[in-house]
Amino acid sequence: MIFTPKETLTEREVENGLNTVLKEGMATEAMVTLAGGTFMVAFAIMLGASNFQIGLLASLPTFTNIFQLVSVFLIRKYNNRRAVSVICCILARIPMVLLGAMPFFFGDNAPVSLLLCFLFFYYLFGSIAGPSWNAWMKDLVPGDKLGAFFSKRSRYAQILNVVLSILLAVSIDYLRRNAPQYQLYVYAAMFMTAGIAGLGAVGLLARVPEPRSYLPNENIMKMFVKPLRDKNFQRLLVFNSLWLFSVNIATPFFTVFMLKTLGLTMTYIIPLTILSQLASILTIGYWGKFADRYSNKTIISICAPLYLACVIAWCFVGIYTNLISNLALLAVIHIVSGSSNAGIGLALTNIGLKLAPSREAIVYLSVKNIITAVFSSLAPLLGGYMADYYTLRQLRVIAEWSGPNLQKTFRLLLLHEWNFLFLIGAVLMVIALQFLPRVREAGEVHKSVVKRIMRTSLRSNLRDYFVIDVLINWHSSLNNMLKINLLNSEKTSREQRHQ
């Protein structure tokens, strides 16, 4: 297939290209789901991975972003973003097929180091393909539709993720109970299928047209220094790096915490993940709409505190051994974090695209990804080391009630191993948020104004905006419910007195 870019694209070519990108997103999501973080972590634990190795596994996707400089070099040399994306994606998906084949050659003794090696090359070539794909999509997707298009693509992908995750979770737990000797090979088949689905996505990507780009004929090092001299872009880099560091010091270990400490199976973990994805699906379209209409920074300032509250709530999971109370708290955490993280991820991607000059988009985005990759990859490594350090340490906060007929001890807080990480991550998030107001975005609207506009929109269409309305107006809703219950109680009492 000829990958030569075109000088201009017709509206029909753009429309067909965007439809193909949506299909490619579905195939890529199938790959990501089959080889997803939860399943990959469970697979690594079955192979005997240590906490540090789990942290290393979590750091690979971001650590390999430092190689995005290679992408810029290739595009400068060949000026063909589609060719770079397609070839690198092929090289990325082959290691996933080989990873899936490991248990068939090594059985239960498959080395974790080989797993990490295959994942390194999977993420390495994916990272090289990333900047060329981002710059390509920036020129292909109309600027006023960036938020709406990518939220739509993400929503479709997440729906597929939900369906596949349910099927996989049920299948894995069924085998765990009835044929545990085959469980490792089921994971192997999943990862091989993931690689094949990824290669299918590459076939679709190769059909998407590319408008010709023009990179300035400058020294490549000077090009990379230019974004660092852009004061506003500097501020975005500082906030984005600190935020990702604080998030990644804790979040990669949520699954490990549920598997190891709480002893939950996939039957519980995957539905919780699906709850998070459903919340993301229901809200991401509206985050995209409001981001396009107002500003991405405003969406971050609304969503980030919600996500921070979720990380703090993880510190209280497992205080009591009651399964129902833990699952209820986990369900609330996953719903709120899914919705808020959807807004944060979308806004951070879009604000990077927005602040990058069109002709130098790939350079700006590569610098952003490389710098944030350093902080993102160091965080889980530090988190794994700290988890080992806190394994034999605990902090308990209790309240005791003593009376003639009752003596009761209430556990208010229990920090051990993973919970320490969650609290440390939350503190770092608070620090990171102090740097967000320094970023300047064109068309920025204060978050209080956007909240007021959201409330007006939500009240006019409660069904469509239900989840966001709960997030913003939960306190008002609770007060109204209490008032209604009180009025109903008074009405019942009056009727009983009359009878």
Secondary-structure map:
Layout: H1 11-34, H2 37-46, H3 51-63, H4 68-78, H5 81-106, H6 112-140, H7 146-178, H8 183-205, H9 220-229, H10 231-248, H11 254-261, H12 266-293, H13 296-314, H14 323-355, H15 361-389, E1 394-402, E2 407-416, H16 418-433, H17 447-460, H18 466-498
Antiparallel strand pairs: 1-2
Structure overview:
With 499 residues, the protein is mainly alpha-helical. The protein has 2 domains: 11-391, Up-down Bundle (Growth Hormone, Chain: A), CATH 1.20.1250; 448-499. It is 76% helix and 4% strand. It has 18 helices and 2 strands. It has helices spanning 11-34, 37-46, 51-63, 68-78, 81-106, 112-140, 146-178, 183-205, 220-229, 231-248, 254-261, 266-293, 296-314, 323-355, 361-389, 418-433, 447-460, 466-498; strands at 394-402, 407-416. It has a two-stranded antiparallel ribbon with strand order 1-2. A hairpin with a 4-residue loop joins strand 1 (394-402) and strand 2 (407-416). Helix 6 packs antiparallel against helix 15 and helix 13 (296-314) runs antiparallel to helix 14 (323-355). It starts with 10 loop residues before the first helix and ends with a helix. Residues 460-472 and 474-479 have low confidence and may be disordered. Keywords: Membrane, Transmembrane, Transmembrane helix. InterPro entries: MFS (IPR011701), MFS_trans_sf (IPR036259), Sugar_transport-like (IPR052528).
